[in-house]
């Protein structure tokens, strides 16, 4: 039987850096002079239909000095099927040799004839072995270019690998390096960089499901879920620009999902570090929210005059967002989150042991029940609630939706998948209606704060009592539909 993987302390960490940051790093006393740079030329192979990638494998040939190495890797959930999910062999040929030493021949069958080069990466690599806080570290600095069809992209990264010693030293070294040069948490490996360069140009990245399965425990599920949120944020972060409002929206969604994951798994996180991190996530989301609110206001107003009046404030909000995203505080937050997910105190505290050991599916069912009860509220009359209470209900609905999306992979039976789709749709309609109500409630303060009370298009956003009654009626109807939606986890 294949060996089941369990959550272990992360022995490696990848950090992205610019050419200027690389020069700053090499100039510091932290990295002693000496290691000669070596050239690495790597080509990734697949079929035109990307059959290997679809099956969860990568195939590459790397020329390192006089040596040519062929590597097949199982990635993602596929890696769980193998005790050692990597096959390496030294080859003399310039094309892959695909025999029974790896699973590819059996996997592709006749399609193996279609395998060809997809993209190449030319890298200059330097490697240091560093003692750090009682640990032995390897630091690899890669700088190079990715070439895919007619596209080119530069790439720079630092990879830290713990060879021996306490895992905390890995993150301590990362923080020290981040003080010398601006480094950002890396979430893409070189294969992902290349395949993304081959695909359509992306303006934003939406959330993707975590690779959960029903045999997991809660302690295995939380870091996987949180990591998908962290990844979504980091993928959208460099895309945030006034001309690309979708990226700031998706970055905020990622942060909200991350906060929700911390909240959902709160019984397992009985430590002050979690509280500090969630407050920092809230702060960062608030900064991005200033730009997002202006995007929404501009869209809702639908007036060129209003857009023109908003533009200086909107440009300033985006400039502030960029400053914050590039700040030491934000970079450090990403490192703190990565460390917490891998080796945070929650992984060993006795007070969370019972929850950690729960089957993830059991934990998910209880969490979904608890969150559903808060949104259901015994078929409350929305007309009887004030704006603040309706806002709280909206937040509860959002958290329930995120939880449902997190845990859907655990309930993959066909009948449950159909039920899950209907449940999410009903919850989404309720969220939309509650969102429109919230827009009406917050518009007066926002319009006044921006000095737009004299603008007819802005005043139109305030709505009337009749508009509010209609929205409440529509939200109440959506709430009834949600209450009647069957639970997919029961």
Automatic annotation (TrEMBL):
PROSITE patterns: CHAD (PS51708). Residues 215-487 form the CHAD domain. SMART domains: CHAD, CYTH. It holds the Pfam family CHAD. Gene3D superfamilies: CHAD domain (1.40.20.10), Hypothetical Protein Pfu-838710-001 (2.40.320.10). PANTHER family: INORGANIC TRIPHOSPHATASE. This is CHAD domain-containing protein.
């Amino acid at each position: 039987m294949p060996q089941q993987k369990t959550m272990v302390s992360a022995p490696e960490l990848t950090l992205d850096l610019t050419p200027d940051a690389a020069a700053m790093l090499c100039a510091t006393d932290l990295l002693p002079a000496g290691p000669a740079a070596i050239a690495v030329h790597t080509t990734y192979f697949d079929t035109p239909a990307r059959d290997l990638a679809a099956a969860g494998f990568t195939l590459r040939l790397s020329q390192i000095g006089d040596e040519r190495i062929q590597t097949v890797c199982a990635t993602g959930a596929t890696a769980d099927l193998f005790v050692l999910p990597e096959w390496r062999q030294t080859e003399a040929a310039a094309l892959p040799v695909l025999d029974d030493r790896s699973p590819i021949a059996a996997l592709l069958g006749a399609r193996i004839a279609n395998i060809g080069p997809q993209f190449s990466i030319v890298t200059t690599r330097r490697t240091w072995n560093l003692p750090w806080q009682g640990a032995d570290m390897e630091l690899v600095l890669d700088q190079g270019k990715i070439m895919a069809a007619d596209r080119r992209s530069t790439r720079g990264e630092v990879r830290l690998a713990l060879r021996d010693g306490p895992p905390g030293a890995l993150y301590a070294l990362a923080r020290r390096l981040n003080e010398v040069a601006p480094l950002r948490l890396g979430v893409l490996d070189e294969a992902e960089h290349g395949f993304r360069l081959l695909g359509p140009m992306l303006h934003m990245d939406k959330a993707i499901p975590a690779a959960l399965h029903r045999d997991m425990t809660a302690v295995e599920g939380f870091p996987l879920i949180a990591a998908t949120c962290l990844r979504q944020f980091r993928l959208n972060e460099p895309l945030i620009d006034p001309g690309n409002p979708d990226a700031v929206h998706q970055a905020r969604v990622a942060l909200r999902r991350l906060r929700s994951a911390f909240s959902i798994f709160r019984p397992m996180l009985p430590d002050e570090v979690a509280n500090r991190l969630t407050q920092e996530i809230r702060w960062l989301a608030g900064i991005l929210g200033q730009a997002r609110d202006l995007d929404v206001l501009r869209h809702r107003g639908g007036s060129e005059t209003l857009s023109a009046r908003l533009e200086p404030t909107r440009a300033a909000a985006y400039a502030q967002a960029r400053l914050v995203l590039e700040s030491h505080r934000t970079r450090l937050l990403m490192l703190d989150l990565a460390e917490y997910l891998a080796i945070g105190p929650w992984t060993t505290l006795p007070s969370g042991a019972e929850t950690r050991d729960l089957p993830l599916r059991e934990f998910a069912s209880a969490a979904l029940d608890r969150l559903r009860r808060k949104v259901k509220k015994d078929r409350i009359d929305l007309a009887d609630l004030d704006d603040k209470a309706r806002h709280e209900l909206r937040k509860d609905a959002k958290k329930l939706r995120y939880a449902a999306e997190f845990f859907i992979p655990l309930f993959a039976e066909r009948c449950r998948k159909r039920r899950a789709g209907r449940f999410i749709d009903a919850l989404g309609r309720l969220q939309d209606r509650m969102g429109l109500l919230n827009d009406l409630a917050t518009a007066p303060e926002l319009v006044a704060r921006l000095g737009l009370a004299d603008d007819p298009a802005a005043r139109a956003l305030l709505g009337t009592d009749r508009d509010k009654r209609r929205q409440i009626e529509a939200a109440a109807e959506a709430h009834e539909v949600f209450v009647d939606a069957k639970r997919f986890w029961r």
